[in-house]
């Protein structure tokens, strides 16, 4: 019998003592200012329990983890037609690489690299205004988490916009290939703000629960997406969720998961658990150093890897 | 309750009627001569049953599926030190691309692209003779499958050797970076012959059963590898098992699997099943067209995707 | 004795009859509307004569030929320090490729690809306003050509700005690497307008005369640049003046030259002649089809290639 | 009036005192053993004089300089059809890069990178035996230089063959694309031996004189190649003669030239001079550090750059 309370507490204690915490993202001041000592973890299980430890109640910038929610919404609006404009393969390169876009004519490799999420933002925009769309995104995430306190951190969004030249480059590059319908400004207005959503581990684990439950949100008991779509989003998280460190993460942890440069990771154990971890120090691939390690230890103690025979 | 007998028979019937069977590999005559109408499927379950249909008893050239067995052996001999010479990330490019080797100084991206498997062959060689090593590989596969009838198809091996200029290029390129200890001739002697192993679906599903059972071979009831290692091999099969079509396969099928240019695929449902399918026609990524489709249908009917909540 | 009057007239007649005129650039309406039948040629010799034929008096959009004048000005203002931010090697790829920028950290390969000319525009801007800088560029070109009628075609500039997403991408990408000091908007304000300068063949050949005369402008009899700098600009035109067709142009024509997407080419015979040709149809590398052919014929009849022993 | 005797002596004295001599090639022992203090220079002028200094009479391994002679022979045998199998553009990458070959389907960028010279060797082979072809190459070079003492250094050839894994990779890679007719072994038999030709500066300057004189060999007073072909070989030397340092060399020196990893450079002043320099230390692009510098100084003092107005 797995005692999750103890396991979560033990892992949090081990992480508090970890000597190598990685490097906090420094490209914008609001992220650079985060204390590298922070660590939080929350596990929502299929029976509705929530186990947490450390700073599980502190909001952090979810950054690219938001790409999971953006993709879920865009699939709901556009269905499989979305895949005409975005691929489904690991990129084999860094999160913000532009090289692949040239050889593949403006079609990003997958929805979880920046270029892919920018196309998703364009799809979400449709003919609406950025403000409306952000309102929808926020409502969606709040509904998933069952918590209206979730907010967009304007300081982060503003800092991203002021320094996000690579993302502006990616967006213009795809625009040149005809893969953005809206203006770059409008699309990035959605993208930068969506990345600036702040959530706690508790909220994030709750919000991701539909991916554990075949698409059903336990808060509302309604289907957010179909079983098939939940499965496929999980698959994309497994092969593409950690940029050029996705293979390593699958090797060590073995769960579909999506990381963000703010140090958060959302990981899914299908049928069993939705997990959020947060620690702001990053490894050399841009994924949370201690977040990855905490998940590796969790999986070792629970047997939750999808590549293991189910634990008895 | 899943009725595997019926499901397997139905899928085989559907595949027999499939209009688009892909293109049979044409680079060597022994493969080009295979009838595209062939289709076989075998499922070995955790309780030791075997369900099969179509040409499940016909031997075919397993080609790159052999990389799973080679990796398993090499990990047993060299342990984690193997990863100093081979990466663990999806390649983002074709199975025989040489580009990545240049920028990454002769370290192949993963053990399932050709370059990676060539380094594995060098590790297996150590200071032995190619003939001895091939004997060991064959014994290993025969033991896994519990069937001494498994053989190396000399005609295929000879044809590979006569035309395998790209593989000779890859091997020499890595040799230039110091990532091969043995001569290119000796290493490729092992590699080409290992790829020429012929197996039936039945034998292959049986041989892969240890990956379903946390490393334990049900034939001998002994551990082939540790639980952790079995999990990790499965993870690599998921992220890297289908070359530049790995993301698509995970998206559609959701099982760790390894394909070969002979049209075979070995897929694992951890704790539940080891599956082999064979149909020689390939899709544009070089993976079996009907083999992939058959697995997609199987997963739809069984709920076996690792990204779904476990079926009740 | 070379009879340039006859040679120029003959070539113009041959070009008028040429069956394959290439494709006129279609990415902006003002260029797409140009009649592909146009052809002009003007040769200014070291003794001050001007030989011309066809539409040598019709203004056309000089586009990338302007990069020669921009580079000349920027070298005058910043000297060799310019080369800390721009390379001097052929790019081996298309004029607007972004791939090389990623691997070389935002340093463009040479000043004649778009990315390089954008950095030159940033250097020209310094702390001035775009309007002032454009005024200086225009004065510089007018002085070189001895003709105040030269103008910037606002329709072209506006169309470039409205559709130049790739250039916006390139600029933002370099900005991300810290290789632009000014805002992207300001830099591209200079760049797009500079590319929209309209000149006749006569004006262009005159304006380029300083590169024939070791840096001395024959109009003013003053040095525009030093002998060394003129030589080096010629060298860059030889190795980098035709994007990924530079080798072919050197092979066929053997003169330092710079082409533009408007169909113009400026070519230099050191000590002997400054040549401008214009024909709007482009070959598959984006260089004037008939302009290149006319220069090839001119060199055959005059022996002017720098790779030939001087004609007696 | 240029006093070449003094200029050559001065440059040799300056080079003897140069503090930074680059790094001697270390990939094979026979090259690694060369004393970095060596420096030689020889200039053959159009009137048949020879000016020399330093170690101009010491034989050194001409390595890639031999590609000029190989190309000349192959053009004589196959004419312009050669260009169906080899490009004419600068490569934008290192001399032994394999990346470009993948995207361009086995067609090397130009005849002066290794891949291109290997295709040239295949063309020279035709249906002959490697030994015969090497005999022809040697006779050709001896005739050009008017000196039967020129030899192939077997120690160098043997060392190249024993360690040339990258070249073996390049050759096999092109073979895979169908761009070699002969076996890799036979082609590289020619290639490695041709690169191992040893010549003195005096012999090399003499051998290159046909490229100064529009194709006419002054020794025999016969045409080695046509005027057009000599011009085009010079053009290729200008744009592609120094690998990924060709732009820099054109910028600094401004002469068509070909370098070799043994530290030799052959440079041509059309109509005026054929120059050989040798100093074994290489710069970071693999070209002779002092050889390049000596040529830069020579051009400064003589005004011989093809990009300068002719000196009076």
Identify the overall geometry of chain A.
globular
CATH architecture of the largest domain in chain A: 3-Layer(aba) Sandwich
Strand content of chain A: 5-15%
Based on CA atoms alone, the radius of gyration of chain A comes out at: 18 Å
Number of structural domains of chain A: 2
Strands side by side in the biggest sheet of chain A: 3-2-11-10-9
Description:
The structure is a homotetramer of 312-residue chains. With 312 residues, chain A is α+β, with helices and mostly antiparallel strands. Chain A has 2 domains: 4-63 and 199-302, 3-Layer(aba) Sandwich (Beta-lactamase), CATH 3.40.710; 65-197, Beta-lactamase (3-Layer(aba) Sandwich), CATH 3.40.710. Chain A is built from 14 helices and 12 strands. Chain A has helices at residues 4-16, 29-32, 66-78, 99-103, 114-125, 130-145, 154-163, 165-176, 184-195, 201-207, 209-212, 227-240, 246-252, 289-302, and strands at residues 23-24, 40-45, 50-54, 60-61, 151-152, 197-199, 216-217, 222-223, 257-259, 264-269, 273-278, 281-282. Chain A has a 5-stranded antiparallel β-sheet. Chain A starts with a helix and ends in a 10-residue tail after the last helix. The mean pLDDT of chain A is 95. Chains A, B, C, D: InterPro entries: Beta-lactam/transpept-like, Glutaminase. Chains A, B, C, D: Its EC number is 3.5.1.2.
What keywords describe this structure?
homotetramer, 312 residues, alpha+beta, Beta-lactamase, five-stranded antiparallel β-sheet, 13% strand, Glutaminase (chains A, B, C, D), hydrolase (chains A, B, C, D), glutaminase activity (chains A, B, C, D)
